[in-house]
């Protein structure tokens, strides 16, 4: 298996050039695109593990790139890089399927730390395929931690790396409350200083996916404490 493939989608050479040099020095296979449309095509071709995505692209908004690659089945990591300020942009970006967010200017060391953490948790997810015939029919909701896949009956529930980690943590302790602090610390990392709305956006996407898939479980909010996974009523 070769090194992780990181796709940098950034039109500003002043940002892209040092970023590419740093990533290559760390041993990643790096490709760069200056526009969103060819980047979407490249992601669709497969083999990309992580997307570093600028929002201010010349041909389209980076949020649309994020949305389209997720809709196309991309399960790798996405880190949004943007000069836009404000909580609204942060939450909207994460609602489109991004895993993390860095506002410009950012330190390369911080970006590398988040890149390593995200790749460590995500890996390269295969496209959805039919489950093996031996899948237990008496377990309509199943989390396969080794393969990093979630099954609702005979269908796979597509999740981003962060969504999987959140769901897997709650599934490992069904009925118990998993605190917000623990989720932030273990799913992101103990040095995460971003908004807790990052977690709320991830939980919101997961809830909707479970509803859409008619899953037999639901995520319940325990106000001021955290969340628990319990049978759907």
Q: How does this model look, in words?
A:
There is one protein chain. The protein has 233 residues and is of the alpha/beta class. The chain has two domains: 118 residues, Rossmann fold (3-Layer(aba) Sandwich); 91 residues, Winged helix-like DNA-binding domain superfamily/Winged helix DNA-binding domain (Arc Repressor Mutant, subunit A, Orthogonal Bundle). Helix content is 39%, strand content 21%. It has eight helices and eleven strands. The strands form three sheets. The chain has a five-stranded parallel beta sheet with strand order 2-1-3-4-5, sandwiched between helices. A three-stranded antiparallel beta sheet has the order 6-7-8, with helices on one face. The protein is globular and about 55 Å long. It starts with a strand and ends with a strand. About 7% of the residues have low confidence.
